[in-house]
């Protein structure tokens, strides 16, 4: 029986991975602050600590050892360094969750593979993940750290609406208002359900062939953004969807918070080659396409009206972008 510690365990990908690990009969422990929105399955051991507090983390694990430590909560090199201070030498595999957004933007060619350069001048989040990876590559080369790097792309579940505005976009659709889409909406975007990504995560966990390697785990489903918004509208019961297209630079000018994720990721057609991971985990595949994913999302939110939170500020920004786009003709 493989013992796995999930640092996190209640996020979009990590919660699905915990469920999958339980189904596979792993001995599963999660470590987090105990405030996650997603429930932990029965039989999972829960440790409570702020992972940013190294001494609290050390006390929480209290000398335990794990076959696998899967780190979903490190975003800058200092986070990785602190975790290695606690876990190095006490786990047979340290899995670091990086991001496919760290691949070259714009990509010089598609499909993107593990050999694609890691460079993203637009998004600090991605540059930080690259720096984390470099720290781990150095530790592997210099002292044999048994690490594995995984690079998921846009991963969602029933609680994660993958558009710029989230529920604000759904609310606008249902109110008959136009919805803003970046670019002309025809770029391809790889979008993967968390249950599918979890197959790759758990298949690599404890897999000796994964040590000292990095893997793209994104699936093969790459609809256009227009199609993504269209499926959400259909699931929301909207028959008169109005899409207003605006350049990513324009959207970033109106809403600087949206700029990095657009210019550093979503503005580009991103299609990936998953050959490397499927060689080790042949069962990894896209089984949930977004037409079904959109139905699951709307079913969840319609049965949980307390989670239907539109952002009034973002709503107003979208109104201004729409007015600007229409004035520009």
Secondary structure blueprint with pairings:
Blueprint: E1 3-7, H1 12-23, E2 27-32, E3 45-48, H2 54-61, E4 68-71, H3 77-87, E5 94-97, H4 124-143, E6 147-151, E7 154-156, H5 167-174, E8 179-182, E9 191-193, H6 194-204, E10 213-216, H7 225-235, E11 243-246, H8 248-254, H9 259-266, H10 275-280, H11 290-303, H12 312-327
Parallel strand pairs: 1-2, 1-4, 2-3, 4-5, 5-6, 6-10, 7-9, 8-11
Helix pairs in contact: 1-6, 3-4, 7-11, 8-9
Strand portion, in percent?
A: 5-15%
Average pLDDT, to the nearest integer? 95
Lateral strand order in the biggest sheet = 3-2-1-4-5-6-10
Low-pLDDT runs: none
Distance between the termini: 63 Å
Any idea what the shape is? globular
Structural class of the helices, strands and pairings? alpha/beta
Quaternary state of this entry equals single chain
Give the number of DSSP strands.
11
The helix content is 40-55%
Radius of gyration: 20 Å
- Can you summarize the main beta sheet? 7 strands, parallel
Please report the number of helical segments.
12
What is the H-and-E element order?
EHEEHEHEHEEHEEHEHEHHHHH
